[in-house]
Amino acid sequence: MKFYEICFSPTGGTKKAADMLAEKLAEEIQSVDLTDYKTDFSGISLEEDDEAIIAVPSYGGRVPETAVKRLSLIKGNQAKAILVCVYGNRAYEDTLVELEDTAKAAGFRITAAVAAVAEHSIARQIAAGRPDPQDQAQLTDFAEKIREKLSSGSTAEPAIPGNRPYKKAGGAGMVPKPTRDCVKCGICAEKCPVQAIDREDPHKTDSNKCISCMRCISVCPHSARKVNSVMLAAVNTMLKKACAQRKDCELYL
Known about the structure:
Layout: E1 3-7, H1 13-25, E2 30-33, E3 51-57, H2 65-73, E4 80-87, H3 95-105, E5 109-117, H4 133-152, E6 177-178, H5 187-191, H6 215-219, E7 225-226, H7 229-242, E8 250-252
Protein name: Ferredoxin
Pfam family, one: Fer4_9
Function: Ferredoxins are iron-sulfur proteins that transfer electrons in a wide variety of metabolic reactions.
């Protein structure tokens, strides 16, 4: 039996939350990075007695389309799956239910689901520092309850909240651009999950490919990529009231 952590985490918040669960559920973890465009996901095949955490961020209340496409290529073969959606303290809306449908279509059996909060990938002051020690304590408690269910052999599926059909997905919205500090090192282009940045000239970004994941900003060693300051201010204003109250992690068994 193997334990997999299948994760789409452009800026690290989703993986941090998934790690907190995975480290309490298994000693050895096989990592599958859904942001790695070079991976042949169709070549990944689990076995029935395997277990997996499948973790994604919530983008406007939906699973990122890129994550859906790549997860759909993996062969679940009835392995047990713990679903994790991570959001920036606003709302995760239809993310978990869409992830449930995607995982089932890929052949996974859903055992549990978790909604966790991480620092907002665009408005970084929203939920800053999360998941924090309080979140870790909750996720550790969740992991113990999930392990108890797995050990019991229960095949009951959790009642996961969300709507079908899902809410309409938003557009890319905010496309990061290079500043004068850009030295064209190419790290952003190499790490972009969807290859939206020109490898020869990182000043060129294909706005039709960009998914506004903010990976390029998080990996730039020179802090030389930014989003439009006016748009960022508008996002901060919009989110400030909706995200004012701390939201706890949620478990569905």
